Here is the input.
Amino acid sequence: MAIRSIIVAPDPRLKAKSEAVGTVDEGLRRLMNDMRETMYAAAGIGLAAIQIGVPKQVIVIDLSAPKDPEPLYLVNPKIVDASEATVSQEEGCLSLPSQYAEVKRHETIEVAYLDYWGKPQTLKAEGMLAICIQHEMDHLKGVLFVDRISALKRNMILRRLSKQKKLQPVAS
Ligand code: NI
Here is the structure.
């Protein structure tokens, strides 16, 4: 297992659309293990494969504290049902470090996906879990939480991140 580096916005790679996974095999499980390690190392609650530069429809989520050795893995997730009711909550993202904004999401969702072993599953989610799944699924479409807020706020956040990047020595 390896901790991979997380791509920070603004970066065109984060705009890529991720492809559906054909087979959940050992190679994909290695990717999922790396994603788990990377997410834990960064103290995050969710990570999409594209954030480490892999354009595949794979997500890892763990809302538990202390961290669960078996987090939730979602391969090829699809929302099969969503409430009309929405909630707004402040979100952050490992690809937009130290930036937060309120984003509107469906309050409850039902999602179909393949698990770590490639077995089809469905999950009804509400609260933080529902928000987190929607946030991570956006990454698979190349959408960041800042794409769901006003242009004014988005530009402010992206400008701040660009400035931070210039100040930091280039890593990897
Ligand atoms: Ni994110």
Notes: Residues 93-95, 135, 139 surround nickel (II) ion (CB under 6 Å). The longest strand covers residues 72-82.
